[in-house]
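Supplementary Note 3. Input sequence used for the single-chain structure prediction.
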Amino acid sequence: MARWRDRRRQKQTVRTPATKIKNQPNVDQITGSKIPKSFVFARGKLPGPLKQLELDLRKLMLPYTALKLKEKKRNNLKDFLNVSGPMGVTHFLMLSNPKSVPHLRVARTPQGPTLTFQLEEYSLAADVAKSQPRYRCTQEIFKNSPLIVLSGFGGGEKHLKLATIMFQNIFPAIDINTVKLGTCQRIVLLNHNADTKLIDLRHYSIRLQPVGVSRRVRKIVQGHQVPDLRNLQDVSDFLTKAGCGSESEGDEEASHVSLTSDIDRVNKASNKSAVKLQEIGPRLTLRLVKVEEGLCAGNVIFSEFEKESGEGDGADGEMEDGE
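The predicted structure, written as discrete structure tokens, is reproduced below.
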């Protein structure tokens, strides 16, 4: 005879976020420094565009992040902190939407500090792609961490110094003497405007093009494909066709560099190449509104709005939730 199961007697599982990170080293074998890793997740309910922004930020932080991090509503900050220790996670990027005002918090684990930014404006990676006629973004460029460039953070204010240290340490450091140029395929630019106190974040892909080589020749060499010459009398007609001769594409002399090693079949160390940057998104405009000593808690080191310095953005005290 069948028996009814009492669900109340079933063993309850521990509330931990599901993570899936490939086996990655925690220490750089060349520099000997610890490799920073990150979690990007939401705190509270987010609207559709902010959920997509969360996925875009995870892709930006590749490869040392949990791209398929699964979170539940009942997960609190302490659950993520318990999982981050064994996995070597050093930074949290947390999106929230208190009072319909999007915020981004960047925290160092496990003891802080925490920087809270207000999202003044943002554009998703899909929107950036639609705005460009020739958008190019392959999955190969996400196999290595991006370069980080900071501009306008030279002020003497303490909160700007903390922001500089936080952004510099959120990506792995590079050694200019041993770095392989072929791995430098992305760059993250952060520009601080002292007048408006806004921080612009831009994400670009890096592409090298040989100077003085036409687009058709470059495609033949890179694509390993035989061109269609059926309607031409000679191969020279293919190379000297109108608009496809010596392609310059408006190259400026300042963008020309001399490579120290061969990158691919086209960009050789003996020739000059032009550096091309293409924005791949997401695009953020941030305002630093609060700096806390601990992990979403502790003394407030800096507050843009003094009225909110003792209130927070609804995140303080998350460490005690669910205990």
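The chain has six helices and eleven strands. The longest strand covers residues 198-210.
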